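Reviewer 2 asked us to include a model.

Predict the structure of this chain.
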Amino acid sequence: MNSTHTDQILDWYAANARDLPWRAPDATPWSVLVSEIMLQQTPVNRVLPAWSAWTARWPTPGALAAEPSGEAVRAWGRLGYPRRALRLHQSARAIVERHGGEVPTSHGDLLALPGIGAYTAAAVASFAFGQRHAVLDTNVRRVLARLVSAQEYPPKSQTKAEVRLAESLLPLDPPTAARWGVAVMELGALVCTARSPRCVDCPVLGACAWQKAGRPAYDGPPRKGQTYAGTDRQCRGRILAVLRDAEGPVGKPALDVVWSDSVQRERALDGLVSDGLVDPLDDGRYALPG
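Predicted model (structure tokens):
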């Protein structure tokens, strides 16, 4: 890849990027942080209404930090992986306590927030503050695997080689590097998709190593799709739905009726309690965390 290919991807992004509210010029760093947490393993169309409701109710970290963590879990609704709601609440409190209620600009300070990993810290530093960091989500990793490494899919777990490659491709100008990061991400989401890539629409098709190699099929470890029906995740979701919809604590029978397998149901409930998503009360009832 060279600077011409970089410009081609940036030009494609300028013409084809989705109009998402967390990309707006007036999007706050907090709203960007909320979007990045919500978008983990969750499609954009499901995140949009939840993000809008969340940022309307809690437009600042301080607004969220002032409420019990259970309200964050309740507002999370059916986005899935509700521990993310707790992490956002913990981050909001840390931002208030450590940074005066303002999302920190430093990548190191972002990384030190509760529940903020390498990806999220780099994404917020790049997309909220225009800094130069390699932002490697699933879409970016897939684009680079095909474009540079002639592989249909990246390794199952992120490697140091992928990070080095991504860093080597970053434009030197920080704002351009930040725009490049989101442009490659969008290219993976809209064109260089996992199952049916629309190669004919790719702005750098002529430079794609995977295309030049004849689009060799993936030959790594089996790629297993995630299942949901019948899993502990589904059971946990049903238990949480009862608690979210209740105006106060609920008795155990109200939770028992949502899942017929008692062993799995108790395991799921124990997991919710240990994760801090459910509070067992002294009177035998259950509630969202206070």
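The two ends are 52 Å apart (CA to CA). Residues 155 and 168 are 19 Å apart (CA to CA). We have added this to the supplementary material.
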